[in-house]
């Protein structure tokens, strides 16, 4: 009987210890989340830089309507260029998020893709584009020197690149839109700034 009471006491002490450890971990995660506020996504290309005018293209979209990439926007809104592929699983998961962000932030979105015609047809059968333009062009990807997808480039209303980077998650997408507010257009700029401040 004494052994049973002692084991129960030890078990409760262990449970209380675990609760204390869990509360400490939750606090640390909260602090880490506050310190890592949204910033520009990781830049992996060597194309036109932030602050440069975007290359300009006038070409038909997938449905044959005229589409303009770069230059001043006709509606005065920023434009998000999303470089994707119809067979990219991450791009597929991001598509509803892109639509939601475009609606909430009132920005234009152009999806720029490459690949076989039947892959695009299959993708568009299962996705409602809404106001998003869909352009098939390897040339635009080469002009921006995009090496990995999904990749986003945010242009202001004058066609100047404000932010760009890999966009594997909702946070990466939102960070492109936060670039003007924070002053850090890329993860690299943020890290360089922290190193300078620490020195």
UniProtKB/TrEMBL annotation:
For the Thioredoxin domain, which residue ranges apply? 48-182
Q: What is this protein called?
A: Methylamine utilization protein MauD
The residues that cross the membrane are 6-26
Localization, per the record, is: Membrane
Recorded source organism is: Paracoccus broussonetiae subsp. drimophilus
| SUPFAM superfamilies, alphabetized | Thioredoxin-like
Q: Give the primary localization class.
A: membrane
Q: How does it sit in the membrane?
A: Single-pass membrane protein
List, alphabetically, the InterPro entries matched: AhpC/TSA, MeN_DH_accessory, Thioredoxin-like_sf, Thioredoxin_domain, Thioredoxin_ResA/DsbE_sf
Keyword field: Membrane, Transmembrane, Transmembrane helix
Instruction: Look up the record and name the pathway of this protein.
Output: One-carbon metabolism; methylamine degradation
Instruction: Please give the function described in this protein's UniProt entry.
Output: May be specifically involved in the processing, transport, and/or maturation of the MADH beta-subunit.
